[in-house]
Amino acid sequence: MKTWKIYLSGEIHTDWRERIESGAREAELPVHFDAPVTDHDASDDCGAVILGHEQDKFWYDHKGAKVNAIRTRTLIADADIVVVRFGDKYKQWNAAFDAGMAAALGKSLIVQHDPALNHPLKEIDAAALATAETPEQVVNILKYVIRGALNR
Q1: Does residue 86 lie in a domain region?
Q2: Model confidence over 126-141: pLDDT tens digits?
Q3: CB 56 within 8 A of CB 27
Q4: 152 within some domain
């Protein structure tokens, strides 16, 4: 039986990843989840800590973004399905970039966000194969895609 590789990209301030992972476990789906580094401080500081401090914030962030991109690019390229969650509290430019990368690579893309974000995310939603509002809907998509099980 195939183990599906699911990459969970997007906001880090809510429990959406845990809800999807828990729902997949409860459904006994053959999945493996990956994600970016979700420790905000570690993600911001990795480049400067590993490669040397930068006084200029641009170069500080630049180093971190490039180090983080090694993980992100590798895991998105290896994923069967990419799930991108957009929260309403912060602008997630990195999540938008991940969605675009997944679409460009021909990955099956599921986007999850509140309906209030339908207009600002219309282009990303258009590239997705499904747009969900809740983590539970994402789990139900995974159940259907992997097992052909439809919750009614």
Answers
A1: yes
A2: 999 999 999 999 999 9
A3: no
A4: no
